[in-house]
Amino acid sequence: MMRIRTRRQRGVSLIEALLALAVMALGMLGLMGVQSTLRNTSDVAKQRSEAVRIAQVEIERWRAFTALAGGGGTNYADIANGTATIAGTNATFTRTTDITTMTAPRPGTSMSVTVAWTDRTDQAQSVQLATLIAGIAPELAGTLSIPGDGGGGVVRQPHGRKLGIPPLAKDLGGGNSGWMPPGTTSVAWVFNNLTGLITFCSTTAASTTALIYDTVNTTSNNVTCTADNGILVSGFVRYALGTTQPTAAQAASAPSGPIDAPALNLAEVWVNHNTVGYASPQQCVVEHINLAPGVTTAYSAYYCAVPVTVIPNLTPSWTGSLSLGPTTLMAPILATTYADMLKACRYHSAATYSLQAEPLNNQNFLMIRAGDGALAPPAGQLGNAYTCPGTTLAHQPNT
């Protein structure tokens, strides 16, 4: 008898193949979905980052205002509600600025900046940043007693240049900035943006914004510089000239102005320069702000370009002190009670400067009356002397 030998079937059936293809197709669809989601998420993240940058730029633009009003640059008074359309790298953004004025006596503005856009999936997206902007003159926006740091402790320099260079100085290019001191004509100070060192110059320009100084192409220059150099010292003088002993609150918010009585008390500032080779004292440029009796926002700003000698391999520096005037009204050390004479108090700790190599700002002072001038028993003696209030220190006289 013959036996028929059968073979076992091997391979993949059609149904199994179809099932495998179905599973693979589902996996591919899932992978495509993940890729699409990742792409959209990455796209939104990029757009959100750009939106945050747009909002930050708007906020910082107003936070860096250069004057309260009428300053020729960005003014605090111009802060207002507004809407703008900005084209981004892969989306069009709508920036909306909302302003709320803070209630008195707080001088300031609450600002909210919202940046909105539509992503690739037609979904509305937005980011919002908010801040408070103090309505205080930029030069007084910190505190009168803030240290006049030369820049060593500052993370970011204003306008990318050395701390102490006046904010309104014009960027001249080539690593320099130019500034015409207030009240001067034909005088220009050219600052090295990196070191803050001043070069003394003359100019035919009518204002700081018109200064032209190109160290490469000099044909259009209206600034002519010398080989003389200096280092800036600047600050403010406030006034508390009441007929009673000034208080700590009056030192923090000075109630008087540069032309309040006693008469002729417009502050003058000198640098008592102790460096060999320079005559002493060197007079400074003083600008008196809000010249009206009893204006509590009145003050004097001063700027001293202290001459220094530049010697190779040595850091230019100066040694000396600051003094205030007019000298005919400053009370001598032994006569400190006269009501028609003045004393100078300082908000900063340094009475003298030794080997000062960095620009200094916020070297601020407070002018007060020397005393009440009243007679006190026994008859014929001078009255009560006033002392420097609050955290201020005696400067002139120094006792």
Can you describe what's shown?
- With 399 residues, the protein is an alpha+beta fold.
- It is 14% helix and 32% strand.
- It has 2 helices and 18 strands.
- It folds into 2 domains: 62-135, S-adenosyl-L-methionine-dependent methyltransferases, CATH 2.20.130; 158-396, no CATH class.
- The chain has helices spanning 14-63, 248-252, and strands at residues 82-87, 92-101, 108-118, 124-134, 170-173, 176-179, 187-192, 198-203, 223-240, 268-273, 282-283, 285-289, 299-308, 318-325, 342-346, 352-356, 365-369, 393-396.
- The strands form 3 sheets. Strands 5, 6, 7, 8, 9, 12, 13, 15, 17 and 18 form a 10-stranded mixed β-sheet that branches. Strands 1-2-3-4 form a 4-stranded antiparallel β-sheet, with helices on one face. It has a 4-stranded antiparallel β-sheet with strand order 11-10-14-16, with no helix packed on it.
- The termini are far apart.
- Residues 150-156 have low confidence and may be disordered.
